[in-house]
Amino acid sequence: YGDHRDLHSFPTRRSSDLIARDIWLYDRTTKHHTKLTSFVGEDRNPVWSPDESDVYYLSEKSGSFNVWKLPLNSPEKTTQVTTFEKHPVRFLSVARTGTLAFGFNGEIYILSTGSGTPVKVSVEIVPTEKSNSTNFATLTSGVTEFAVSPNGKEFAFVVHGDIFVASMDYDVTKRITNTLEQERNVSFSPDGRSLL
């Protein structure tokens, strides 16, 4: 928003030595900052209205963070938009349509332009199907090469371009590679602990 104006929230030192953020407007053309808020507590997360005539932001003025609206042509006429209690409003954002979105008490809310009541967004988490990623298959052909380990207890073989290792008694077979490329020239290291 704004081809020449930016909104920021900067910490400001108060006379009582309390540091809290205020909302500032920066004009890139004139390189001038204008302080928009001066509440002793925290003001943060400013966002533009779609026509850039208003600024929405989060403030602790009501005791806990809520959404407030500040008209740029008369900043003294700031109004409270939400009236939540106990928990702070967080993560304020605005859509191009002017709909506000924010988090409150672990939920997501939207507030449409002209509506006075925030609506909780229904979030449904659909679990994925639980399945075992292990596929069992019996391969009875297609071995292109093999190698026996130095101790003679296991062997490595290539089938369908991937390397498998099996014990000589066939109790355990393990797939070693799973690539798109063809694996070739399989052999054991001299100590039998690695495959080449």
Features of this protein?
4-stranded antiparallel sheet, elongated, 196 residues, mainly beta
Widest β-sheet, arrangement of strands: 4-5-6-7
Mean pLDDT: 84
Query: Largest sheet, if any?
Result: 4 strands, antiparallel
Low-pLDDT sequence parts: none
Strand content: 35-45%
Following the backbone from N to C, one meets helices and strands in this order, namely EEEEEEEEEEEEEEE
Please report the distance between the alpha carbons of the first and last residues. Answer: 59 Å
Backbone CA Rg:
32 Å
Number of separate strands? 15
| Amount of helix | under 10%
Shape: elongated
Structural class: mainly beta
Tally of contiguous helical segments? 0
Describe what this molecule looks like in 3D:
By secondary structure, the chain is mainly β. Helices cover 0% and strands 41% of the residues. It is built from no helices and 15 strands. The protein has a 4-stranded antiparallel sheet, with no helix packed on it. A 4-stranded antiparallel sheet has the order 8-9-10-11, with no helix packed on it. It has a 4-stranded antiparallel sheet with strand order 12-13-14-15, with no helix packed on it. The two termini are 59 Å apart. The relative contact order is 0.08.
Q: Strands, helices and their partners?
A:
Blueprint: E1 5-13, E2 19-27, E3 32-35, E4 43-48, E5 54-59, E6 66-71, E7 79-80, E8 89-94, E9 100-104, E10 107-111, E11 119-120, E12 143-148, E13 154-159, E14 162-167, E15 173-175
Antiparallel strand pairs: 1-2, 2-3, 4-5, 5-6, 6-7, 8-9, 9-10, 10-11, 12-13, 13-14, 14-15
